[in-house]
Write a structure and sequence with these properties.
Elements lengths: L2 E5 L3 H13 L3 E5 L2 H11 L3 E5 L7 H9 L6 E5 L4 H10 L3 E4 L4 H15 L11 E3 L3 E4 L4 E4 L2 E2 L4 H12 L4 E3 H8 L8 H15 L9 E4 L3 E4 L2
Parallel strand pairs: 1-2, 1-3, 3-4, 4-5
Antiparallel strand pairs: 6-7, 7-8, 8-9, 10-12, 11-12
Organism: Streptomyces aquilus
Protein name: Transcriptional regulatory protein KdpE
Pfam families: Response_reg, Trans_reg_C
Length: about 230
């Protein structure tokens, strides 16, 4: 069973999430503040986290950073904050998706399923090419690992999924719309700020000179291309 950690301080939202998730056979833990959430995450090892940014004891972005210090678990952010700067800050800290309150339960559950799916390992035989090597790093598609300088690079599930799509299409232009739909889901297509944030993170983690990338190439107004 998939275990969900709900981090939310509004009791009615917690109750609605718990009822709906349990009805769909998820196991659910809930925390009403950031400190409890970090303890629960370490103890219970959830498969996905649903996080409200407005917590009583700390900002949700701090919780994201705390989790990202040791786990790649998918994080789906809930927030009443509407500014794109705050969304980008949460995504930049390591969140995988963002749902603005008030939200529809069906949409939230669809986003949650997509986040879990992106985090699942690739099975053997899914693709003939399993390893891609560059001068700076090696991508192991089957093991979902990236190695740079002899050390594994920690990527979030969304960072990995974006990398995987680009690497599997090596040398070919992948449009912004295609990337958004493959990585975030079919209802996406115009959220290009997501791509900018995540491409910057991939370059920062993998390029020798992130400001002059050799591997993750931007085709302005069109999309991105991976060069090995």
């Amino acid at each position: 069973m998939t275990r969900v950690l709900v981090i939310e301080d509004e009791p009615q939202i917690v109750r609605a999430l718990v009822i709906n998730l349990k009805a769909r056979k998820y196991e659910v833990d809930a925390a009403h503040d950031g400190a409890t959430a970090l303890q629960l995450a370490a103890a219970r090892h959830p498969d996905v986290v649903v996080l409200d940014l407005g917590l009583p004891d700390m900002d949700g972005v701090e919780v994201i950073r705390g989790l990202r210090g040791w786990t790649r678990v998918p994080i789906l952010v809930l927030s009443a904050r509407h500014s794109s700067d705050e969304k980008v800050e949460a995504l930049d800290a390591g969140a995988d998706d963002y749902v603005t309150k008030p939200f529809g339960m069906d949409e939230l559950l669809a986003r949650l399923r997509a986040a879990v799916r992106r985090a699942e390992p690739v099975g053997p035989g899914d693709d003939d090419v399993t390893t891609v090597e560059t001068a700076e790093f090696t991508v192991d598609l089957a093991a979902k690992k990236v190695n740079r300088g002899g050390k594994d690079v920690r990527l979030t599930p969304t960072e990995w999924h974006l990398l995987e799509v680009l690497v599997r299409n090596g040398g070919r232009l992948v449009s912004q719309k295609q990337l958004l739909q493959e990585v975030w889901g079919p209802s996406y297509g115009t959220e290009t700020n997501y791509l900018r944030v995540y491409m910057a993170q991939l370059r920062r983690k993998l390029e020798a000179d992130p400001s002059h990338p050799k591997h993750f190439i931007t085709e302005p107004g069109m999309g991105y291309r991976f060069e090995g």
